[in-house]
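Form 7-S
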Amino acid sequence: MRGTLYGIGVGPGDPELLTIKALRLIREAEVIAVPARQKEESVAYQIVKKAYPELEKKDVLAVDMPMTKDKEKLQASHRLGAQMVEQELNQGKNVAFLTLGDPTVYSTYLYIHRLVGADGFPTEIVSGIPSFCAVAARMNMGLVEKADLLHVIPSSYPVEEALKLPGTRVLMKAGKKMGQVKQQLQQLPSSVSMIENCGMAEERIYRSADEIPEDAGYYSLIIVKEPEGGQS
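Output:
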């Protein structure tokens, strides 16, 4: 019998936000997969280990997922990752693939999930707390109310037009473009908040566009809200 691939969202950083279901499946899985060259480099792995120290005794499959927009390199790495996972599934082992936040939100895991599923293996996605929900909670604010709209924006791409959208705008994955994003945010009359490394030991909170450092880390998330009484 073939094993099942579980794409498990581990939340944004705080190990106490790991769901009961996620922890159960991680405990039961014969193999733990992580999106990294080695398990020590995986933030998701480190989060789970704090909640479940016995994780270190598990067999770990390190799947390298390069940070690139080169389509050929991405397709090759995704196919290789899927093949590595399928080797374990063919032995009847269940694989728990750890991913930050929720697997359905800008997750590189999804590419492997689709490939493995298309090859006829059973797959399941296990929701985790999305980073933007955790950030809003940490900031003690609501994301949307009444008829408000919510827009989730990948800010490693151009964001100028997206920032004109009404409602609450969530900016994720700015990376090296944080300086450009900051300049555009400074031109808005909107309320801007950002948390870097939400729920982690290195967490930093910024309550305005001016405070945002241009060298902020990859795990930074920005919430842009309209001023009360009108659209920005």
